[in-house]
Amino acid sequence: MTAPGTGPHRIAVIGGGPGGLYAAALLKRLGPDREITLWERNAPDDTFGFGVVLSDETLGGIEHADPVVHRALQREFVRWDDIDIVHRGHTQTSGGHGFAALGRRRLLEILHERCAGLGVDLRFRSQAPPAAELAATYDLVVAADGVHSATRDAHAESFRPRITGHRCRYIWLAADFALDAFRFEIAETAYGVMQLHAYPFSHDASTVIVEMREEVWRAAGFDVPDPADSIDQCAKIFANALGHRPLRSNNSAWLTFRTVVNDHWSHGNTVLIGDAAHTAHFSIGSGTKLAVEDALALAACVEEQPSLPAALAAYESERRPVVESTQRAAAASLRWFEELGTYVDQPPRQFAFNLLTRSRRVTHDNLRLRDPAFTAGVEEEFGCPPGTPPMFTPLRLRGLELRNRVVVSPMDMYSATDGVPGDFHLVHLGARALGGAGLVMTEMVCVSPEGRITPGCTGLYTDEQAAAWARVTDFVHTASPGTAIGVQLGHSGRKGSTKLMWEGIDQPLDHGNWPVTAASPLPYAPGVNQVPHALDRAGLDEVREQFAAAARRADACGFDLLELHCAHGYLLSGFLSPLTNRRTDAYGGPLAHRLRFPLEVFDAVRELWPDDRPMTVRISATDWAEGGTTAEDAVEIARAFVAHGADAIDVSTGQVVPEERPEYGRSYQTPYADRIRNTLCVPVIAVGAISSWDDVNSLLLAGRADLCALARPHLYDPHWTLHAAAEQGYTGPGAPWPLPYRAGSRTPPTGRTDAPKPRLTLG
């Protein structure tokens, strides 16, 4: 074993894929006296898959770390810029993407040669000893043994892996000709939707991946032990893409992708890299890229850090955020292809744009730089007036026309007295109305004193409260003409009678608690929150009438839109989720019964709300908890509300049970809005970590949302929408500056910009 404070001398590498080989080469190059042994159970020329794609970023790291490998790769690469998307007889081409690929076998040969030249002991057709044995005699054990890693499985209690299967089957194949672009092709067959992903990796060969949902795969008869017939059938289905050429296999089999996540990447002196540590769906071309980048980072950290434990900690600290970001993008791409059937009816250009931006890494602004003509065509098809970004196109809901697609999301301020909104609410909502958003939403306005979350929540159950709200709506309509203001009505249910957020979120009051009600007598946090009273018939009727009375007052206040809050574990949400509704009467059990009371409330409100003014419903599209509301349930919940007259669905998630495990990330809730919109063809409001105007434009143009609601960005900048217009050079009617603010419509200078530029650089 190595002495503390010195680098590892004897290194074992398990697995001869690109990650393991490159790690061995780098570690040997940095320490020529190191003894490095690599075990690979297959022969040197055995490989699975055909081509690999590497980004310019990854190639830059290779060039800096090992120019010899970089030069060898440069001689082999096939490069191209275009992506072709073929669907229903239309081919949409987007350029400027910049790919570089080569054959996987040739990549391995280059790395074999480099390792051998440096003196790495390569042992092919050799099963590596167990990692525990190697760890006893080697200073460092690098486990690069792939998605089915035996090392990871043997030490699962330390690495704590989580492996998730998915809903599509796919197969890696090749065609003996070079495509002239990266090609996505969609085939709508008698069995269901299939897709082809294909790209060239040499002057005479292309990788071809065929993918489809499991049920489509079975219906097509592809679920047989020998895939030969299915490969021939795929060649016929995608004959136009292949020029009627055959597809060839390399021990190819139909697979389901497995997402691998590990809580820890090292155990003692053993470390995971590549697919052993993490996987990301092939549709963003990241597997080899991540493995090579892992090798680069591991070698650098071993070189830089004073001890092996410090090096392994630094390696994981450096790589984990990058990997997690890539996995989020890959998950979004994977889900997009799983739900491909919901997009096939989109217009051709929008469909292509949607596919290109599916992972959220390519955006509207990014595509405008890569291919202005393609993006302009998508904008025209969407209906953008000339020179108008998508976010500033109007949208009509019943008699209300919103001048742009930006919504100030409902945000509880906990600043009312006895439910009465005061000067704080006037300034808070008024400032955001002046800031340019098309629609400004109130916080959840409670329909009764016992329906408040906290003593600081606003209400609409007294005339005094109504008068205060009328003051707010009058200011918005007068000071910011064209801005709409909406009210969100709700009841706290079992999450009521708690402290102000900054005093202890979801914690019961120290004194003055009021009784809470819910669908079932289940406390929000057992042992912390009080047990709610399950509403009986009289209680249900009373709550319904409270909502109706609040709607009457909202009408009199002059609100332009009304939203019914059926999300986040509050009363109506509590009826919808099977985790919080355990009733055995007509309001519990199957989803149709759990929907009954929220729909009764909706109907009562809709009957009183003016017919020309829209109503929306906010739902939690998933509980992020086992046994809770699913994405499929959310579609049916939305379908029911739309059938009863909802004009749009505001799609949020979670906050229903404290044991939830959300998958946080940029725009992480939008796939649920997307699914509802494209399954039901209904307008949706997307929420959840949407933070940039580029994200808003991308979501709208892709057809994943009709409106985008932003909360924290509007807390950071009340004039977020006006600033978004200024940054895009937009001055049209979708974002007019208030006259007193017009002088601020240009970014102020921040320092001297006229300094003379250098004329010479002397070496």
UniProtKB/TrEMBL annotation:
Phylogenetic lineage: Bacteria, Bacillati, Actinomycetota, Actinomycetes, Kitasatosporales
InterPro entries referenced in this protein's UniProt entry, alphabetically: Aldolase_TIM, FAD-bd, FAD/NAD-bd_sf, OxRdtase_FMN_N, YqjM-like
Official protein name in the record: Bifunctional salicylyl-CoA 5-hydroxylase/oxidoreductase
Pfam families for the chain: FAD_binding_3, Oxidored_FMN
Taxonomic source organism: Streptomyces drozdowiczii
Domain FAD-binding: 133-327
Domain of life the protein comes from: Bacteria
Region (Disordered): 735-763
Coiled coil regions, renumbered to chain: none
Annotated NADH:flavin oxidoreductase/NADH oxidase N-terminal domain residues: 391-725
Listed NCBIfam families: PRK08255.1 (NF006101)
CDD domains: OYE_YqiM_FMN
